[in-house]
Amino acid sequence: MYCSNVQALAGDAVFPNVFSLSKSETDDDKKHNTATSSGGSAGSHKKKAHGDQPPPEPTSPPPPAASSAQQGSDLDSSVERNHLMKKVYPKLQLYCAERGWELHIVDLHQGLVSELSHVSYMQRCCLDELASCQQHPYIFVLFLNDLYGVTIPPSIEADDFQQMLAAAKDPEQAAILNKWYTADAVVMPATVEINNKERLELKESAILLAALFNAMTAVQRDKYMCSVMEQEVRRGILHDNFDPDTVLWVNRTFSGFPHDVAAHPNCCDYADAAAADGDADVVRFVRDRLSMLKKQVHHRLLMNRSNVLRHQVEWHERHGVCPEKVPEHGAYVEKMCAQFEESAQRVVDKIVRSRQEKEEDKPFKRITDKLHQDLGNSHSYCKSLLESYVEWPAPLQHVENYTKNAHTTQPLVVHGPRGSGKGALLAKVVSRCSQWLSDCICVFRFVKASPGCSLGDTLRSICEQLAIIYGLPRGWQVKEPFGEIMRRLPGDRTLIILVDGIDECRPYDDIRGVDWVPVTLPTNVKVIVTVGDDTSCMAELQNRFSDAACYYQMPPVTQQVAESVFRTVAQACGRTISDKRADETLAAVRACTSPLHVQLLSRLACVSRDDDVARCVGGTLDEQIVKAIDDAGRNAASASLLRHALGYLLLARDGVSHAELLDLLSCDNTALDSVAAAAAADPAVRRFPPLLWARLAAALEPYLLTNVIGGRQLLRLRHRSMADLLRARHAADDVDLNAPLREYFSGRWANGAEKPAAAAGKKKGTGSDRCVAAQPEKFADSVYNSRRLTELPHAAHACASDDASAAEYLFDVNWLLAKLHGCDVHQVIQDVMLAIAKAHGDQDLQLLLEVLRLSSHALENDPSQLFVQLGIRLNKLMSDSADAAYPRMRKLYEAVTAEDRDYFEPSALECLLSPRADTAADDTAAAAAADGKRGVVVSSIYRLKATNKFMVCLLYERGEIHVWDMHACAVVRTLRGLSAPRDTKFIDDLKAVVLCNRELKIYNLDTGEMEVKLKGIMNQKMPFYELHDQNHVVSMSRNRMYIHVIQISTGDTQSTFKAGEDRFLNSLTVSSNGHYLVCGDETQKPTPLLVWDLNNRKLIYDLRINNHEFQTKMLTVSSDGHFVVCACKEVISEDAINNVVIYDLTTGTVFKKWKPGYNTTAIAISSEADWVTTALDNGNILLWDLTTGTCKFTMKGHYSAVDNLIASTDGSRLLSYDSTGFDRSVRLWDLNTGKCLGALTLDDNIVSCQLSPDGSMVALALPGWENVLTLRLRKQPLQPDTESYGSPDRAENVYTVAE
C-alpha cells in the first residue's frame, strides 16, 4: 500500500512553495523597489543597469509556488489534506495575499486513484517539484504517520536488472520482472524502464514489489526501494541547510488500532501490511525504515516542537477516519485545521519578516520594479540562449565589425526567416561586447522575454536604464524622439543597444512602426535590431533605410553548425545516443536550413523511443513544430487536454502561472473528463490532478518559457513560430477558451461557488467547489491583484463582439484607479487602444486615450493622481463642450470631480496640458522646450513671517522683485532695476536684505526704496549670509576666512571674527532666535562644525567625529537654537552611506545619531513640533521624534530623492519636492498622521517652490511662467481675507529702484 505522506506548501512574498511563498508586487514595491532582489547581489543589479557584460545570473524573483508534494497512496492522510484544501488553504492564501505574497499549494496526489502512485513518472515529478520548491522560501508540510509507502522503482540500471533476473527465486518472478520492465535502447549506459503502457493494478503491483525485493541485494534495496516519501523527507528536511521553522509535521496516531492489520481490511489504508502482498520480509523492511525516518525527523524538529501537530484519534473499525460519520473524528479534523492555520500563519510571518529585513539592507540604485523585471527577464532569456549556442563565426564576425566601425552612423538590421538564429546571435553579441570594446555600455532587450511588452514599453525601459547609467532625470525622454535621445547622451564611451524581435512587440501601443529607429546615429552609438523576413516591420525598415550596408541576412545553417547543435541538444537532454541513431539523425539534420529546425529534429530523435528515426525527423519546419509539441504531450496527456492547456497559455495576455493553469483546468469540465480514468471516482475535492499537469509541464518544458511579470512567474510558449501555428490550430478547433479565462479572473467559481459538472454519469445540475483562488481587485491596502486587472479586460475584449467590455472597465473610475495601482498606465493605454480597434471612431475612447497619454508620466509614478490629473486636464474641455459630447467621458469626469478626495486644485489650469488643445500652440511650446528656449522667469519664491497671503518672488534675469498675492493670484508690488537679485532674507514683512550679484542691499518692498547698501563683497560661489536680529546681518567674507557682523542701519561692519589660521568655511547657518552661528570648516580633517555664541561673539564648540566629515549642505539649526542637525559621512569608503547627527548646543554633545540605511538628501527640524524629517535617496521621507529618537512615520510617494523639505510654522505640515527635475512632483504631508494630503506631478520641472506659513497653500515657479502657480487643497477653500500688503494706497505699484 502507498499513501501520501509528504505535503509541501511553497511560498515567497508573491514568491513562496512545498508550501512555497512568493512575493507579489505591491503598489509600494512598484515605485520603491531597490536595485537588488532575491537571488542577486547589489553588484549584479548594478552591472545589469549599467550594461556591464557578460550578463550576470538572472536576478528576477523566483516563481510564486506553494507546493504540496505527496507520494504513495493518499488514503493515509486524504481526509486531513482534503479538509485543509477546502477550509484552510483558501484562508491562508488570502492571508498571504494581504501581505503581498502568493501561496501556491501543490499536492501531487490530490484527486488520483491510488494505483497511479506506482507509475514511473510519479517519483520523478515529486522530486522535481520539491527541487523547484526549494528555490524559494517554502513550508514543508509532512504527514508522517504509520504508512511508509514503498514505491516500485521507475528505472533500474541494466546490469543491476540482469543480476536481479539471475537471483529470481523462480521463473514466475523473472517473468513478472520482464513483463513490467523494458530496455531503453536509446540511452547509454543502458537502463530498463517501468512499462507505463499498461495500468499496474494494486494486486499485481504487490506481486511485482515482492519479486523485486526478493531478487535484490541489500545494497540494491537501499538504492531502489527507498520510498518517494522518504526521498522527499531527506531532500526537504534531512539536509545541511534545513530550517526547522519551515516544517509543519501533522502526526496522527490511533488508539485502539488492531495489531493484526492484515485481518482488518480498513487498516491496510493506514499501515504497510499489504506491502508486497503481505511478504513478511518486505513488511519488516518497510517498518524498520519508517521507524528510522520518524526518529530522524523528530530529532531535527527538537528545536521547534510547536511545529509538530500531534493528535491521537480513536480508531473506527468500519470507517477508519470519517469526520462525516464519527463525531470524534469531526472534532479532530476541526482542531487539526485550526492548529495548522495558526502554525502556518506563524511561519508565513517569519518568511515575510525575513524578506523585509533583506530588502532593507539593499542599496538604492533608482531601479524601479518594472525595470528590474525587464532586466531580469532579458538576462534570463539571454542566458538560456547562450546555453544552447554553438559557434557560428560568419554572423558574429559581421556584427563585431559593425560595432568596431567608428565611422558607421546607421543602425544594423539583422533579418532572416523564423528560427534562423537571430536571437541566439544577439545573445552571443551581448557576451562578447566587453571583449570587443573594453569600455563599452551594452543595453539589450529580448522582446520574447516580456510577453506583455509593447514597442513603447521596450523603448521606455531602455531609456529608463540609460537615465540611470548617465545620471539623467527619470522621465526625461518622455516627449523626445529616440534618435534625439541618443544624440544627447555623453560621447565618452561606446553605447551598444540591441533589441531582438522588434516585429514581435504587441501591436497596440502609442509607438508603432519603425519611425523610432534613428536614421543617423552619433559615432559612439550602435543600434542593432533583429526582424523576421516577410513581415510588415521589415518592409517598413526597407522603405526607411535604402543602404544595403544597414542589413545583414542570416545565412543558412552549415552542416558543421547543424552537427554542433545536435550534439548540444543531446547533451542538454542528458542522453547519450547510440551510434546508429546518431548517424541517422545527423543525416537528417544536415538537410536543415535553420537552427530551430535542427533543434526540433534533434530533440525528437533524442527523446523519442520510436525505432523509425526517419518518422521522427522527417517533415518541414511547420510540421516539426506541431510534431514536437504533440510528441512531447502524447504520453503525458490526451489530445483534448493538451490543446486546452496550450490554449490557455496562448490566449492569456501574459501567459499563466502553474497555479492558475491548475485552477483553469479544474474549472474545465473537458479537461477533467479527459483524466477521468486517472481521477478518483468520487473525489472529496473536485480538482484537476496536479500530478498530471506536472507531468505534462515536464514534457513540454523545452518548448515553454517562464517570465516574471508583475512579480509572478508566468508560462508561455518559447517560440513565436510555435505560438502562431498552435494559435491557428486552436482557432480551427472552434473551442472558446476566452470565456473560461474571463470567468476565472472575474472570480466566478471562487469562494465556494459550485460549478456544474458535465461529466458522464453526473446528475444534471450537480456542482462542486473547485477550490480555485479568489480574484478580488485588491487584497489589502497597496496590494492589488495585478493578474485579474491584467487578464480580465483582455479576455473580455476577446469575448465581446463590440466595445461593451471597454465601457465596463475603461470608464469605471474605481477600475481605472485599481489598474493603475496594480499594473501601470501604459497597460491601461493598451487596453484603450485594443478597445479602439473594435470601436473605430469612438470619440470617448479617443479622448480617454489622449488624456492618459498626457498624464502617463504622472500616473506611472503615482496612480493616486488619477483624480487631479483628469480633473485638471478635462476641466476646460468639459466646460466648453455640449452636454451631449463625450457622454462616457463626461460621466467619468463627473465621478472624478465628485469624488470625496482632498487633492490639489491649481490657480491656473494651464499648468497641465489639455487634450484637444490648439495643436499649433502645443507644437510651438514643445519645440521651445526641447531646444531649451523656455527661460526661467521667476527664479525663487520666499514666504513672509507674519502673513499667509503674500509671498515674495525674485526674477533674477529681469532684475525684479514681485510681491505676490496668493489669494488674488496677482502682483501687488513690483521692484525693477535690481542688479541680478539672487537671494533674500526678511527683516520684517516689508523690509528685506537682498543679495544682488555679490552685494547685500536693504530694500523697502512696500515703498520700493533701497535704504542701505551693506559694505563688503560676497564670495562668488558661497555668498552666505543670515540675520542675527532685526539690526544685524551675519555674512561670510569674500575669502571665506572671516565672519562679519554688519549693522543694518548704517551698512558698516560692527565686528569681525576669524575661524582660525588658514581655515576656510563652507556654510553659514544662524538659529532663528539669533543666538547661535554654525559654520562648516572644509580645511580641517575630519571636517568639523564650528559653533559661535553670537551674543558674546565667541567660538564655543569645535564639533568633530573621528573618520567622518560633515555634509554642510544639509545643515540646519532648530528655531530655538537648542539643536543643530547635519548629515555626516564616513571618509574611509566613498560608497559609505551617510548618517544624521544631532548636537545639543547647550552642552556641545551628540544628542542623537540615526542610520536610516540610505543616503540622506535633505533635512528639516521643528522645535515647535519636536521632530526632525530626513529625505532619503530612495524617495522616502522619515519623520523622527526628537525626544525619543524613534522613527514615527515613513512617508512614501516620491519616486526619486527630494532635496527640499519645507515645514509649516507650527510643524504640522511638510512640503517636499526635488529641484533637480528627477521627480517633478510636489507633495504636502500631514505630519500628525504621516499621510500625503496632496500631490501633483507637473509637465515641467519645478524651478522653485514654497509653503505658506500655515501650510494651507503651495506656491510654485515654473519655466517660462511670469506668474506664480498656487495650489490649495480642494476641501480647504480660501477664507475671506481683507489683509493688504503695506499701505493699501500703494497696491499694484511698480517701482524702478535707484541704485
UniProtKB/TrEMBL annotation:
Residues covered by the NACHT domain: 411-569
Biased composition (Pro residues): 53-65
Keyword Repeat: yes
Keywords associated with the record: Repeat, WD repeat
WD repeat coordinates: 1195-1239
Domain NWD1/2-like winged helix-turn-helix: 619-737
Keyword Transport included in the entry's annotation: no
Superkingdom assignment: Eukaryota
Gene3D superfamilies referenced in this protein's UniProt entry, alphabetically: P-loop containing nucleotide triphosphate hydrolases, YVTN repeat-like/Quinoprotein amine dehydrogenase
SMART domains hit by this protein: WD40
Location of the region described as Disordered in the Swiss-Prot/TrEMBL record: 23-77, 1279-1299
UniProt-listed InterPro entries: NACHT-WD_repeat, NACHT_NTPase, NWD1/2-like_WH, P-loop_NTPase, Quinoprotein_ADH-like_sf, WD40/YVTN_repeat-like_dom_sf, WD40_rpt
Protein name, UniProt field: NACHT domain- and WD repeat-containing protein 1-like
Organism field: Priapulus caudatus (Priapulid worm)
Phylogenetic lineage: Eukaryota, Metazoa, Ecdysozoa, Scalidophora, Priapulida
